[in-house]
Amino acid sequence: AACRDNEDLRHFAERLEALGQDWPLDNARRIYRKIGDREKYLALRSRRMEYGVDYHDLATFHWEHGDREQALAVAHEGMKKAKGRMDELRAFLADRARESGDRGGYLDLQFAQATQPLTLASYKAFRKLCKAEEWPTYEPKMETALERAWAGERLRIHMHRAEYDRAIGILSSMRYPDSRYGDDDLLKIAAQLEEKFPEQVLAFYMSGLGRLDQNMQREVYAQKAKIAQKVRHMWLDVIKAPEKWEALAKQIKTGNLR
Questions:
Q1: Cα gap 167→172, rounded to integer Å
Q2: How far apart, in whole angstroms, are the C-alpha atoms of residue 80 and residue 86?
Q3: Interatomic CA distance for residues 116 and 149, integer angstroms
Q4: Do the beta carbons of residue 173 and residue 151 sit within 8 Å?
Q5: In whole angstroms, what is the distance from residue 165 CA to residue 89 CA?
């Protein structure tokens, strides 16, 4: 902010470069790129080519300077060698594939982007990209990616696809979320499945009660009271077995006499 012109910026970059440490060198490299010093930028850039963002930085530099073949070569090399976050690099190559009319390459890159990691949002976005005749090619691959996804995202995707049998199987393997880090979507999904799978949803709610005969903080009592309310709703309104609730309520009161 104190630099008034490119000469000031160059002086600042040289001071940063002289420190010889990673963070100052990264900033020096950005400054050299900004002021158009190709030689200095490339010299510093070549010192570290390890992560996806490194290759993306160099690829976009070549692209902006009209060396498009070199830019693509760097990007493809990065896809093979780079570590860490690859989102920007995949997006760069996907844009180039779309511009060149390579629909297959574009979709392959977008699929890789959507499944690293797979979420409901990325699933819906990729599904929207595919034409009706293209989706059958990617649907089996999506199933494989779905198996590797986080349980909460798998649950959301199965609910989105109205695959309720698969959704309840995942919900049954999960515990009721802690209210401090709770997942409201998870509870909303459980509520949607109450009528179809009452026993499994009841078991999911019960998993949040834990032990009811030990001293806890007031906020924990409050959370468990809300969970007990859901259990009561299941026994009375859904399963229609009030005697089951009465037995549990008696157990809760007996366990908390003190």
A1: 9
A2: 11
A3: 9
A4: yes
A5: 38
- The span from the CA of 177 to the CA of 99, in Å, is 45
pTM over 0.90: no
What is the phi-psi region of residue 19: left when phi exceeds 0, alpha when psi lies from -120 to 50, beta otherwise? alpha
To the nearest 10 degrees (0 to 180), the angle between helices 184-192 and 198-206 is 150
DSSP structure class, residue 181: G
| Amino acid present at 191 | A
> What is the Cα 219 distance to its own chain's centre?
30
What is the DSSP code string of 153-180?
A: HHHHHHHHTT-HHHHHHHHTTSPPPPGG
| pLDDT tens profile 190-236 | 999 999 999 999 999 999 988 877 788 888 888 889 999 999 999 99
Q: What is the mean pLDDT of residues 112-124?
A: 96
Main-chain phi, psi angles of 240, to 5 degrees: 65, 50
